[in-house]
Design goal:
The protein is of the alpha+beta class. The protein contains 3 helices and 5 strands, in the order βααββββα.
Length: about 100
Protein backbone atom coordinates (compact mmCIF):
# COMPACT_ATOMS: atom_id res chain seq x y z
CA UNK A 1 0.00 0.00 0.00
CA UNK A 2 1.46 3.33 -1.07
CA UNK A 3 0.18 6.75 -0.02
CA UNK A 4 1.88 9.84 -1.42
CA UNK A 5 1.27 13.31 -0.02
CA UNK A 6 2.54 16.28 -2.01
CA UNK A 7 3.88 19.29 -0.15
CA UNK A 8 5.55 22.63 -0.83
CA UNK A 9 7.61 22.71 2.38
CA UNK A 10 10.90 21.55 0.94
CA UNK A 11 12.72 18.41 2.07
CA UNK A 12 14.30 19.90 5.21
CA UNK A 13 11.06 21.29 6.66
CA UNK A 14 9.07 18.17 5.78
CA UNK A 15 11.77 16.04 7.38
CA UNK A 16 11.80 18.21 10.50
CA UNK A 17 8.04 17.79 10.86
CA UNK A 18 8.18 14.03 10.31
CA UNK A 19 10.94 13.68 12.92
CA UNK A 20 9.10 15.94 15.37
CA UNK A 21 5.89 13.90 15.04
CA UNK A 22 7.41 10.44 14.66
CA UNK A 23 5.46 9.10 17.67
CA UNK A 24 2.16 10.34 16.19
CA UNK A 25 2.91 8.69 12.86
CA UNK A 26 3.82 5.43 14.56
CA UNK A 27 0.51 5.48 16.44
CA UNK A 28 -1.59 4.42 13.43
CA UNK A 29 -3.53 1.82 15.43
CA UNK A 30 -3.62 2.98 19.05
CA UNK A 31 -4.01 0.18 21.56
CA UNK A 32 -4.01 -2.46 18.84
CA UNK A 33 -0.40 -2.57 17.69
CA UNK A 34 3.17 -2.52 18.91
CA UNK A 35 5.25 -0.20 16.71
CA UNK A 36 9.02 0.22 16.48
CA UNK A 37 10.75 2.84 14.36
CA UNK A 38 14.24 3.46 13.02
CA UNK A 39 16.02 5.90 10.69
CA UNK A 40 18.31 3.82 8.41
CA UNK A 41 19.03 6.92 6.32
CA UNK A 42 18.44 10.65 6.84
CA UNK A 43 15.31 10.73 4.62
CA UNK A 44 13.75 7.36 5.50
CA UNK A 45 11.79 6.38 8.59
CA UNK A 46 11.10 2.64 8.83
CA UNK A 47 8.28 1.19 10.90
CA UNK A 48 7.59 -2.34 12.09
CA UNK A 49 4.02 -2.83 13.24
CA UNK A 50 3.05 -5.99 15.14
CA UNK A 51 -0.68 -6.58 15.36
CA UNK A 52 -2.94 -9.61 15.53
CA UNK A 53 0.04 -11.96 15.40
CA UNK A 54 1.26 -10.44 12.14
CA UNK A 55 4.09 -8.04 11.30
CA UNK A 56 3.71 -5.15 8.88
CA UNK A 57 6.76 -3.37 7.57
CA UNK A 58 6.44 0.20 6.45
CA UNK A 59 8.48 3.24 5.54
CA UNK A 60 8.12 6.97 5.23
CA UNK A 61 10.26 8.50 2.47
CA UNK A 62 10.73 12.26 2.59
CA UNK A 63 11.43 13.96 -0.74
CA UNK A 64 11.59 17.58 -1.94
CA UNK A 65 7.94 17.78 -2.94
CA UNK A 66 6.22 14.72 -1.44
CA UNK A 67 6.19 12.36 1.50
CA UNK A 68 5.46 8.74 0.68
CA UNK A 69 4.10 6.20 3.16
CA UNK A 70 4.63 2.64 1.94
CA UNK A 71 3.43 -0.47 3.78
CA UNK A 72 3.92 -4.12 2.85
CA UNK A 73 0.67 -5.72 3.91
CA UNK A 74 0.51 -9.51 3.89
CA UNK A 75 -2.50 -10.87 2.03
CA UNK A 76 -4.06 -11.92 5.33
CA UNK A 77 -4.07 -8.27 6.46
CA UNK A 78 -5.21 -6.65 3.23
CA UNK A 79 -8.48 -5.80 4.97
CA UNK A 80 -6.50 -3.38 7.19
CA UNK A 81 -5.44 -1.12 4.30
CA UNK A 82 -8.54 1.05 4.67
CA UNK A 83 -7.99 1.40 8.41
CA UNK A 84 -4.34 2.34 7.94
CA UNK A 85 -5.19 4.84 5.22
CA UNK A 86 -7.98 6.37 7.33
CA UNK A 87 -5.60 6.74 10.29
CA UNK A 88 -2.66 8.16 8.32
CA UNK A 89 -4.31 10.45 5.81
CA UNK A 90 -5.58 13.17 8.16
CA UNK A 91 -2.37 13.10 10.21
CA UNK A 92 -0.19 13.42 7.11
CA UNK A 93 -2.27 16.21 5.57
CA UNK A 94 -2.26 18.20 8.82
CA UNK A 95 1.46 17.63 9.31
CA UNK A 96 2.31 18.80 5.80
CA UNK A 97 -0.13 21.72 5.53
Amino acid sequence: MRLAFPHSLGRDEALRRIREHEADIANVAPGMADVTTSWPSPDRLELQIAAMGKAIKGAVEVADSEVVFDFDLPQSLSFASGMIKAALEPKARKLLS
